[in-house]
Design goal:
The protein is mainly α and 104 residues long. The protein has three helices and two strands; from the N terminus they run αβαβα. It has one domain. 40% of the residues lie in helices and 8% in strands. The protein has a two-stranded parallel ribbon. Helix 2 links the parallel strand 1 and strand 2. The longest helix has 19 residues. The protein is extended. The mean pLDDT is 80.
């Protein structure tokens, strides 16, 4: 499922009014009767903040946020799942090979 908040006008950093945007996204999912627990939030390093991670943890959303190396507090504590296309393709090939080998 893909969901997004409304655009913000002006020049702002990535975390500008993130609480309101997250609530807006969650309400859209609720209106569509889609359970958000266990979903992934993919974001770049500009969204790496303790506040956002805490909000996502509270809502039981998995934070797939690249760590911001300038933010020493979070750089050591979290994992970032690989999202490049070539890596995903290779992981699928490995899974298919394993399924094939199980049949032998």
């Amino acid at each position: 499922m893909l969901s997004m908040g409304s655009p913000k006008s002006g020049y702002h950093h990535d975390l500008y009014e993130i609480e309101g945007s997250l609530k807006e996204i969650l309400s859209l999912l609720s209106e569509a009767e889609i359970d958000h627990k266990g979903l992934f939030l993919n974001a770049d390093a500009g969204f790496d903040s303790e506040n956002l991670r805490h909000m996502l943890e509270k809502e039981k959303i998995i934070a797939n946020i690249k760590t911001n190396l300038r933010n020493n507090k979070t750089a050591k504590n979290y994992y970032y799942f690989e999202t490049s296309v070539i890596t995903w393709n290779y992981l699928h090939y490995i899974a298919l090979v394993i399924l094939f080998l199980r049949k032998l």
